[in-house]
Design a protein that fits this description.
Elements lengths: L19 E3 L2 E6 L5 E3 H14 L4 E3 L5 E6 L3 H11 L14 E3 L6 H13 L12 E4 L12 E4 L2 E4 L2 E6 L2 H17 L13 H8 L19 E2 L4 E2 L11 E4 L4 E3 L16 E3 L13 H4 L10 E4 L13 E6 L2 E6 L1
Parallel strand pairs: 6-7, 7-8, 15-16, 16-17
Antiparallel strand pairs: 1-2, 2-5, 3-13, 4-5, 4-12, 8-9, 9-10, 11-14, 13-14, 17-18
Helix pairs in contact: 1-2, 3-4, 4-5
């Protein structure tokens, strides 16, 4: 049995309109359901970042894009630009459009359908900004990222646990509503389904289903993609010149549909991640992005963290390089 959530306040995840006051200026997080982005939309993001803040865009572990260094009040113009480009379809739901999908799967239609239903359901605006939906085409790439609700080849998954329920976008909406109802019933401020007492089982019961522990999805590993070192999309990385569409992945890579991938050795930056560090984060003890180094071929993923919070750390076994007042502490976790 899981303990009840100890959250005592709503989450403060930034959005495109509700920005976070970071040490280097405003931080806006632009949700990209399924990581889908057209070349024109990427151009809008680049122009907005260059003219309103830091020109380097950040790719996140949820396949979203962040704009840093915004001057005070710049989020108003940023929101207007995003809305005009189709990147902000709902001001009320923009922080809850957290949808990760199999980058190589035929799930775009399902992603768009769920996103539309999500934005059209007023009650779902109350979802926490950390709440995550995954849409896995069955290959097992995004289900292991442990979304709160998800589909694995059409089968409902709750906090990583398969259930007996099957369906499509409307089932995901029902599951999200069931999470909100269970949260009220438990008088909880939980941000994630797994934080509720027996969350997966109780939400499944509300959907007249049950958790099936005997059939867990197998992790297939991340799909091939173009590595973006440390997830920093600089002006020099002009992917929009090569493809009309770009898919941002939760592994901070990009997939270019229709563009053949060259046969070459893996980038030494594959599997290397880092938090914002100095100067963007006031809590950081080091400029981790400047200190980060490529990893050894075949070694474990490496995450560089500016403090003990370890923001952005990957799931699964990895090497952590944590900044301390005495220097970096290395450990396998």
């Amino acid at each position: 049995m899981q303990p009840p959530s100890e959250r005592d306040a709503p989450d403060r995840c930034p959005g495109a309109v509700q920005v976070h006051a970071a040490a280097d200026g405003g931080l806006a997080r632009v949700r990209l359901p399924g990581g889908l982005l057209t070349a024109d939309q990427l151009g809008v993001l680049r122009a907005a970042a260059a003219e309103l803040g830091d020109p380097v865009l950040e790719l996140t572990s949820r396949a979203n894009v962040q704009v840093r260094g915004l001057r005070p009040g710049a989020e108003i113009e940023l929101g207007e630009r995003l809305a005009a480009a189709g990147l902000l379809p709902s001001a009320t739901h923009e922080r809850v459009r957290n949808i990760i999908a199999s980058p190589l799967g035929d799930v775009r239609g399902l992603v768009r359908e769920f996103d539309a239903l999500l934005c059209a359901t007023p009650a779902l605006a109350d979802l926490p900004g950390r709440f995550l939906a995954t849409i896995d085409d069955g290959r097992g790439d995004v289900t292991p990222l442990l979304g709160d609700v998800g589909l694995h080849g059409g089968r409902l998954v709750l906090a990583g646990l398969p259930t007996t329920a099957t369906g499509g976008a409307s089932l995901l909406v029902a599951a999200a509503l069931a999470f909100l109802a269970e949260r009220v019933a438990q008088e909880s401020q939980a941000w994630r389904l797994a934080e509720l007492r027996d969350g997966p089982a109780r939400v499944a019961h509300r959907l007249r289903a049950s958790v099936d522990l005997c059939d867990l999805p197998v992790f297939a590993g991340p799909p091939p993609g173009v590595v973006v070192p440390l997830g920093l999309l600089t002006p020099a990385l002009r992917f929009e010149d090569a493809a009309k569409e770009i898919i941002v992945t939760p592994w901070r890579t990009v997939v270019l549909p229709g563009v053949p991938m060259p046969d070459s050795d893996p980038s030494p930056w594959t599997g290397v991640t880092a938090c914002a560090g100095r100067p963007g984060c006031a809590k950081a003890l080091a400029d981790v992005r400047a200190d980060a180094r490529p990893r050894d071929p075949g070694g474990l993923p490496v995450h560089w963290a500016g403090c003990e919070r370890r923001c952005g750390a990957p799931k699964g076994r990895h090497v952590e390089m944590v900044a301390t007042p005495q220097g970096y502490r290395s450990a396998v976790v």
